[in-house]
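Work Package 3 (structural annotation) set out to generate three-dimensional models for the target panel prioritized at the project kickoff. During this period the team completed the workflow that converts sequence records into discrete structure tokens, so that structures can be stored uniformly alongside our sequence database. As a representative example, we reproduce one entry of 161 residues exactly as it appears in the project archive.
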Amino acid sequence: MFIELDGWMAKLRFSASHLIPDHPKCGRLHGHTYAVSVRVEGTQAGEFIIDFIELKDIVKDVCNRLDHRVLVAENDPRLKITEEQGHYTMEILKSCKHYVLPRDDVLLLPINSVSAEDLCKYFLNEISVGIRGNGPANNITGLHVRVDEGIGQGAGCNMDL
């Protein structure tokens, strides 16, 4: 058995900018409105596998952290990121481009890229931590997450719990 939340319909969205270093088009700073869809597999524990409200709150919390930020993959070997007084300097090593951005506008993520695929893995981990942090979840056996960077275009991943 499973339950699902459609990110577009359930308003589990965030808007953010990013770039993919050395990509011919996505190598320029640009933005998306993302939607995060979730499917939780398991058995009912009482009335629910997990309460929709609880699951929405977990996903919304992660979306809110990323909303209206410049997302930067701090583990991307193509970038050199330095923090100075109130700002980050981000240098793209191969192209010699550099950006100076206010620290409050940037969210450094512990991922290798800000592709839809790596953002999906980030959300999968954060949502699984949120589910486990809300008490015993022995009845939940699987978690599937999809991060869309536009309607009909996204990446999905899953994990067994």
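The chain has two helices and ten strands.
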